[in-house]
Design goal:
This protein has 560 residues and is α/β, with parallel strands linked by helices. It has 14 helices and 27 strands.
Length: 560
């Protein structure tokens, strides 16, 4: 734990835990992160992961990773694998093995029988529409199902028929017998078991009835000895039911549910179901497309796990829902990368510069710091030769005004870490496009100002002989609307930002970078932060821009 983390005032869940420990209600804490494997994790889940695992770390407790896999229709082993990868990558270790709600199906089934025997559950055979109509409304009580007062024996027989596959899907459900007039709709005889004739990724064809979320979740917590079951606010209304099951079942422990505000980020959609639409309908290339707010997309884009953890720390944990500005996430990413990303030079829009007075075949190496603030990281060698690439945007034929510090015909500029060069001649093709600059260098300018004149401009460059072409993918926000889900008449996909991916062909990247360790994110000087994309092959280098150096959205907004 860093100093700043220690100084932060405790959030409301930490306060509850401190009191529980101080007053002996628990001797140690045990939390869990309980994803349903029906999609890849997104940035919202990162908040829940950092909270649950972070509490266990802070209070010397434990945290489980448990798949809440009660609905085989939407779940898949691919999602299980991706979620395990993402939680590990975020830097957390769960207690013991990965757990599955499905491994408690036998116990849950026994507990369903227990409720039937106690007269607290019954099999309802109304069709879904009638059942829904009979639940009543917020102002009207519900109507009892015809089967509500069936005998225990009849209910046991019907539930056995459900389990044995003798009913069609939807023909019968097991419901708790609580109160059809309860002011909380969740307490109006909620569903415990539904028929789903589907193979399950963990239990295969063993079951054709599956427990509901409500009937499973608290009981899973109790089985695992979870002390603080933390979930998002939308489950507040389910808490009385959570407690009802814990009171009415022979559970081995009594967990308590606490709710916190979910992360909502502007310009972003955090819902597995909707992110799945983007994947299935081909709006992105996959769950790990670097434009996606998924943990795997953010990772592929080059965002460090530490930046995500810092972001979650920055936004804090509260009980009231709000919207976090995505620029806070971007800030956390820039802050982390600025502090730790090694520096390098790459030319995104190359223009050839030939240094006519530098001998052909000769080359030399300049020395540059790996990171200007971390001397301990040492220096890197920057090769230089007669032909170099500079960025097209760093040259203009005629100096437009006195503020122009970059190169122009007849002007001088320093090649970063190297010599001062003067542009003597511009070569154009038939269409008039500039294809090459003929320059001369001043040999007496390495590490010092030239004699008798000031050269203020410094530009980045790479040696043509020592670089290779790359495809560079520039990313921007996936949505160009602050609240893509906030439009009644319009689908969120209408607000996809068509410019969220721009591809630059033919950038020039220093050879040495391609040998760097996988996952390295560099600061390409004057351009931003970049990393190698896994689409890279032996023949083709693909680079992702993780983020720009500065927040261009803030600029646009303040201009407007
Ligand atoms: P989604 O709607 O995206 O599928 P979910 O809540 O259904 O989200 P789960 O797999 O059930 O997804 O979530 C696992 C845990 O992550 C839950 O405890 C849930 O409350 C939490 N979680 C989900 N979304 C967010 C969010 N935006 N912010 C914080 N926690 C979240
Ligand atoms: Mg869900």
């Amino acid at each position: 734990m860093s100093e700043t983390e220690k100084e932060k005032p405790a959030n409301f869940i930490e306060q509850i835990i401190e009191a529980d420990l101080a007053e002996g209600r628990v001797s140690s804490i045990h939390t869990r992160f309980p994803p349903e494997p029906n999609g890849y994790l997104h940035i919202g889940h990162a908040k829940s992961i950092c909270l649950n695992f972070g509490l266990a770390q802070r209070f010397g407790g434990k945290c489980n990773l448990r798949f809440d896999d009660t609905n085989p229709a939407k779940e898949d082993q691919e999602y299980v694998d991706a979620i395990i990868r993402d939680v590990s990558w975020l830097g957390f270790e769960w207690d013991g093995d990965v757990r599955y709600a499905s491994s408690y199906f036998d116990t849950l089934y026994q507990w369903a029988l227990h409720l039937i025997r106690e007269g607290k559950a019954y099999v309802d055979q109304q069709d879904a529409e009638t059942m829904s109509a009979n639940r009543g409304t917020l102002t009207e009580p519900g109507v009892d199902a015809p089967n509500r007062n069936l005998s225990v024996e009849d209910n046991l027989a019907l539930f056995e028929k459900m389990r044995a596959g003798e009913f069609d899907e939807g023909a019968a459900i097991l419901r708790a017998k609580i109160d059809m007039a309860h002011p909380n709709m969740n307490m109006r005889d909620p569903a415990l078991y539904r028929i789903r004739k589907q193979s399950h990724h963990q239990t295969g064809d063993k079951w054709c009835i599956y427990p509901s979320y409500d009937f499973a979740h608290g009981q899973e917590d109790a089985i695992e000895g979870i002390t603080h079951s933390i979930c998002t606010l939308e489950f507040s209304d389910h808490r009385p039911l959570y407690d009802w099951f814990i009171e009415n079942l022979p559970v081995p422990a009594k967990p308590t549910q606490y709710e916190f505000a979910p992360l909502n980020l502007n310009y972003t959609v955090t819902s597995k179901r909707r992110l799945k639409q983007l994947v299935d309908e081909g709006h992105v290339f996959g769950w790990d497309d670097p434009r996606m707010p998924t943990i795997s997309g953010l990772r592929r884009r080059g965002i460090p796990a530490k930046a995500l953890r810092n972001f979650c720390d920055m936004i804090g944990v509260t009980k009231s829902e709000g919207v976090v500005d995505v620029s806070m996430l971007e800030f956390a990413v820039r802050e982390e990368l600025n502090a730790n990303a090694p520096r390098a030079m790459t030319v995104l829009r190359p223009l050839k510069m030939v240094i006519t007075n530098y001998p052909e075949g000769q080359s030399e190496k300049f020395s540059a710091p790996v990171h200007p603030q971390h001397e301990e990281l040492g220096t890197r060698e920057v090769p230089f030769s007669r032909e170099v690439w500079i960025d097209r945007e760093d040259f203009i034929e005629v100096k437009p005004n006195k503020h122009w510090k970059r190169l122009f015909t007849g002007g001088e500029v320093r090649l970063r870490y190297g010599y001062v060069v003067r542009c003597d001649e511009v070569i154009k093709d038939e269409s008039g496009e500039i294809v090459e600059l003929r320059c001369s260098y001043d040999p007496d300018t390495l590490g010092k100002m030239p004699e008798g004149r000031k050269v203020k401009g410094v530009i980045h460059w790479v040696s043509a002989e020592h670089s290779r072409p790359a495809e560079v993918r520039l990313y921007d926000r996936l949505f160009n609307d602050e609240n893509p889900l906030g439009h009644k008449e319009r689908d969120f996909k209408e607000f996809i930002n068509p410019e969220a991916l721009q591809v630059l062909e033919g950038a020039q990247v220093e050879n040495s970078l391609t040998e760097a360790a996988e996952g390295t994110v560099w600061q390409f000087e004057r351009e931003g932060y970049f990393t190698v994309d896994p689409d890279t092959t032996a023949d083709k280098l693909v680079i992702n821009r993780t983020i720009t150096l500065r927040d261009s959205w803030a600029k646009i907004q303040s201009k407007a």
